[in-house]
Amino acid sequence: MKSEELVMLCSALSIKEKESPIGTLDSKLKAKGEQLLSLCLVGKVLINKLVNKDALINVLSNLWRTNEGVDIEALEGNLFACYFKNLEDRKYIQQGRPWTFDRAIIAFEEPSGTSDVASMNFNRVEFLVQIHNLPLLCLTEDIGTFLGKMIGVVTNVDLLAAKNIGENFIRVRVVIDSEKPLKRSLKVDLLGNGIITTMLLRYERLQDFCFKCSKLGHSLRECSEPRDGEESITEAQLRLNVWLRSESPPKQFHHRNAPAGRRYWGNQSGKPHFSSGQGNWRAGASWKKPVEGGPERIPGNRSWWKDVSSDDRNATTVEKLSLAKGISINEGKREAKSPAKDTQMMEANRTVGRVKEVGVPYGPNHEKKA
C-alpha cells in the first residue's frame, strides 16, 4: 500500500481513537532498532517501468562479494532494502557506486531515526567523472577539487588513473542531483584574462539517460519535456551524448616481488626478461633443480624425469641417455620394460634344462618337458 493511502486512512480515525493511551518504546528495543538501521541501505532503481524484483535480488546477491553476506528485501515499486552484517560491508558497497540494473542507475539512501521510505528522495547519485581537455596548469589535486565542486559534492580526487594509461584528465568522485540534467562541460577562466577554457566531462559506468534533457531515469522516447519547435538533435550532439559515457580505466596491478611494485615484461636495459616459472622446453635444453641431490631432466625429453645419483652427475650426455633406455612413464609412474612379450613370457632354466612359463605355478608337479 502506498504511503499516501496510509495517510488518508489515518486521517479517518475518530477522535476517541486518537486519544487512546500512548506506549513508550523500551530503550533496549530502541537501541536494537537503531543498530539495524545503521547497517541498512534502501535502494531505488531509477527507471519508469517496474523491474523484476526476483531478478534484481538474485543479481545483486551474486554481484556483491561481501564478507558476511547481505539480506535483500523487496519493497514497493522499484524500492528494496539491504541489510548488512557489519559496517565494513556496507561501506564497501557504497564505495563501489554507481550500481546499475537493467541499464538503469540505482540510488541509495541511509535510513535514520523514524524516517520512512516515503520521506526519502533518492535524488543523490555518486559518479566517477573524468574531466578532459585540461591544460597542464590544472593537473593538481586542489584544482581538481575546485572543478569537481562545479559538478557536485566532491568525495575524492584521482590523479594517477590517467597517468597510468598515458592520458591527460582528472578523475573526481562526486555526488550529483539525479533530478537535474547531467553537466556535459565546464567553462573556466583560468588566468582571469577573459579567455574561457571549455572542459568536457565523461561519466564512468553511465547507463541509459535522456539525450534531450540529459536527465537520468528515462530515455529519449519517454521524455516529457516539450519540444522547442522543430528542434532536433544534430549528429554532433548525438556523438557528444554517446561520448558522455565512459568505461573505468584499467586498474594498475602491482607485483609484490618487483622492486618498484610493478612487474615488467619484455626487454629491460637491453636484456630480455622472463618469468620466474618460464622454462625452456625445447629439445636439447637441460634443466636442474637447485636442490642438491634433486632430480635432473634429461636433455631432449620433456615428458618424464629421472633420478640421477651424485656419482652420475659428472657423466657425459651419452652416458645419461644410455641410463634412460628402457624406462618410460605410465600415468606418472616409472616402470621397466622388457623386450620379451607380456603374454606368456618364456625364460630358460639352465640348471634343470627345462622351460617354465612366468605366471604359471612351477614345481615338481607342474614341470613340462622341453
From TrEMBL:
Regions of compositional bias (Basic and acidic residues) in chain numbering: 331-340
InterPro entries named among the record's database cross-references: At4g02000-like, DUF4283, Zn_knuckle_CX2CX4HX4C, Znf_CCHC, Znf_CCHC_sf
Disordered as annotated region, ranges: 270-303, 330-370
- Pfam families the UniProt entry points to: DUF4283, zf-CCHC_4
Q: Which GO terms describe its molecular function?
A: nucleic acid binding; zinc ion binding
Residue ranges of every copy of the CCHC-type domain listed in the record: 210-225
- Keywords carried by this UniProt record: Metal-binding, Zinc, Zinc-finger
Composition-biased stretches, type Polar residues, lie in 270-279
Q: Which PROSITE patterns match?
A: ZF_CCHC
Recorded protein name is: CCHC-type domain-containing protein
Organism equals Acer yangbiense
